[in-house]
Specification:
The longest helix is centred in the first third of the chain and has 24 residues. By secondary structure, the protein is an all-alpha fold. It holds the Pfam family TetR_N. This is WHG domain-containing protein.
Amino acid sequence: MARAGLTVDRVVEAAADLADEIGFEKVTLSALARHFGVKDASLYSHVRNLQDLRTRVALLAGGEMIDTIAEAVAGRAGKDALAAFAGAYREYALEHPGRYAATQLPVDQALVADSPALRRTAEITYGMLRAYGLDEPDLTDAVRLLRSTFHGYCALEAGGGFGAARDVGRSWAKAVEALHVALTHWPGEAPEGA
């Protein structure tokens, strides 16, 4: 029997909060049970196992992140949209480190197809990039460039990996400017086997 007051949403939200406090990889069912003052078994009425919990946190965080990004890019296009997208991405990653780590979890593609938030992520990201005149397969390549650049920068920044005296915000702005230039002058498709 489920403990009164516990719901799937409440359990997942608490796990996301705990991830921000102690780190996503340190979230366990035991730690979450202690948070609620219940036995581990009480949580199995709400989540199947730790992987199910982590996947649910990833989907929650992905939805929150794209909502933040969507609000930032609304009514913008081109370089302005890219800068707003990048800024919202970085802000979310730095303010919610555990949730952000969850967004990097590989998620079963069937769940992605069923997740309105993750479909919205693709729509907003690809929509922003279409302003640069990109079509497939260039859209996929551009998404990978943005994601790897944003993630790498945020991971290094969060971990204190930038030791030079230059302000990291200024370097971030230069990186976004460089991405804009790259997207504006996107290379054509290389011939097969090249």
